[in-house]
Write a structure and sequence with these properties.
This protein is α/β, with parallel strands linked by helices and 227 residues long. It contains eight helices and eleven strands. The chain has helices at residues 10-22, 33-41, 59-68, 84-92, 105-120, 154-165, 173-181, 190-206; strands at 2-6, 26-30, 47-51, 75-79, 97-100, 126-129, 132-135, 140-143, 149-151, 210-215, 219-224. Strands 2-1-3-4-5 form a five-stranded parallel sheet, sandwiched between helices. The protein has a four-stranded antiparallel sheet with strand order 6-7-8-9, covered by helices on one side. A hairpin with a 4-residue loop joins β7 and β8. It is elongated, with a radius of gyration of 18 Å. The two termini are 34 Å apart.
Length: 227
């Protein structure tokens, strides 16, 4: 899971990076609000944790702008303010949840897991679509009707995870490349096509009716034809 952290308190940011990395999140940390806003605009993250009080652009502004651009990344807002009106403001700006500092680490992690379940339709470490089940802990892909299963590679898993999470929309090659490899990687867009081929072979091996359809000139979407 790729997580965007925008926190200008360096000690807090460093501590959060360590905690989240230990929980197997891939964390990009920014201390400047404008830099964080630019990163979130790329729509490559599964989660975003935003402090409210930030230099150049506050967390409310970041969330509001992201939602106006159609960015659906779940946002958890962090703030030292406990005023109800402040919380309401954050939620109205597009945040999905709100946590007041100081907070207990267990609560932060629990709230992040809840956002992931909501976003990815996770049930006890499993993602569902059509006749397939994707196990997030083992990276196994299972045909729930026959019980046949196959192990996915890291990139195959990430590809299918993103498509399932965005099952109601078409994902472009550019979006997939950013979410899987990130800005810092020089992966070519044809790498996306390569992994699509790999995942399709795994679906065929399972005898699944779930398909990854290529929308010419646009991208890919998940489809399930129960015939």
């Amino acid at each position: 899971m790729k997580l965007l952290l925008v926190e200008d308190e360096k000690r807090m940011g460093q501590a959060l990076c360590e905690i989240l990395t230990q929980e197997n999140y891939e964390v990009d940390w920014f201390v400047d609000g404008q830099d964080g806003a630019d990163a979130l605009t790329g729509d490559e993250y599964d989660l975003a944790v935003l402090d409210v009080m930030l230099p150049h652009k506050n967390g409310f502004e970041i969330a509001r702008e992201a939602r106006k651009r159609g960015i659906r990344t779940p946002i958890l807002m962090l703030t030292a303010k406990s005023d109800v009106d402040d919380k309401v403001n954050g939620l109205d700006c597009g945040a999905d949840d709100y946590l007041t500092k100081p907070f207990v680490t267990k609560e932060l992690l629990a709230r992040l897991r809840a956002l992931i379940r909501r976003q990815y339709n996770v049930d006890e470490g499993r993602l569902f679509f059509g006749d397939i089940v994707l196990e997030t802990n083992t990276m196994n892909l299972i045909n729930k009707e026959t019980g046949v299963e196959v192990r996915l590679s890291d990139k195959e898993f990430r590809t299918l995870e993103i498509l399932i999470a965005n099952k109601r929309q078409i994902m472009t090659r550019e979006q997939l490349a950013l979410k899987i490899w990130g800005y810092e990687n020089e992966a070519e867009y044809n790498n996306v096509e390569v992994y699509m081929t790999f995942v399709r072979k795994k679906l065929k091996y399972l005898g699944s009716k779930t398909e990854i359809k290529a929308i010419r000139g646009v991208g890919y979407e998940m489809r399930y034809e129960n015939v």
